[in-house]
Amino acid sequence: MASPASADVTESRLFTKAFVALAVADLAYFTSAGMLILLTPLFARGPLGADPIGVGIAIGAFSVTALALRPLSGRESDRRGRRPLLVVGAALAAAAILAHAVTTDLAVLVVLRLVLGVAEAIFFVAGFAMLADLAPRGREGEALSFNSLALYLGVAFGPSLGELLLDVGGFPMAWIGAAGLALVAAFLSLGLPETGRQSDLHAGPVAFIHRAVAWPAAGLFTGVAGMAGFLAFVAIYGEEDLAMSGSGPVLLVFGLIVVGCRIAFAKLPDRVPPFRLASAALALIAVGMAVTGLVTTVPGLFGGAALMAVGVAFVTPAFFAAIMSRVHPSERGAASGTVSICLDLAFGGGPVVLSLIVDAASIPTAFLLGALIPAVGAVFTAFVALRRRVNANA
To answer: Degrees (nearest 5) of the Cα angle 58, 60, 63?
Structure first.
């Protein structure tokens, strides 16, 4: 029997004390992570004197452990519950960030980045699973729409906060600030309810991919890979190809549309069939990328970015609702591990694929051909939606 703690703790209300506390903990953690986006390359290049290759190794080391440990983290969150892993992940991040203050060697920085990858794998997967636990049945998409704002805001404002602390007190103050935010996340996680713990879940081999959610996660991969590839080259494209003074306004419009749609239409992913919405969202991402590749003007860039932003606003909540409806509560951690693996691969793979096209042709060509990635996902997801509809009517 599963322990009482593993019972479904969701209520009919979405904005419960636990839901808000998880969102604030996520905001603190991802703001800390956002600060590191700015601070880590500056620290490696400046005080540690690393060359570009060294900077790349230090930053990339994070992804090695994050990607490798996500399946284990998901399995452990199903066995031990989400709360312990959230606390451990945030506390481990705080300790690793604070250790930056006494780091004087690039090799030590690489080790700390590996540790931060472990922390992120633990915290992110457990938080993703707890979000599904806390969401009322049938409102999983709405829950993700609101919760994801914490990640977007953290990554958006974290670099600015890091730059401010760096100007005021140098790297020591910046590390202390980032570590402090991670500790806040750990403290808030202590007050969260225990969810997901399954005392009868026997230890065994850890499956790298949860088969029940592999195809939906692959569909999500195509959308995120397209977005990541676009964002990797939009600044260069705007400034070098279109002679814009800066691409900040394009990114601002993109971000405001994503946030605005997720707030204004938060309930939509739970009110329409999730695979249909996901297919439409992927199609919008593909069309947006194609527009930026075909209409090589400033208005074309803004228009394409706006279309993409609408698709991005709905693609993750739609797939989240579809994925969590396919798994038992005792397997949400494992499912979250599979999803986060696809997200990691998408954020890394999308820019790499587009960079190869840019090297061989041009950025507009890369946008146009890169649109095929979410387009394929849209067609496949539409097929899944149609098959499910036919089966339901049979």
So the answer is: 125
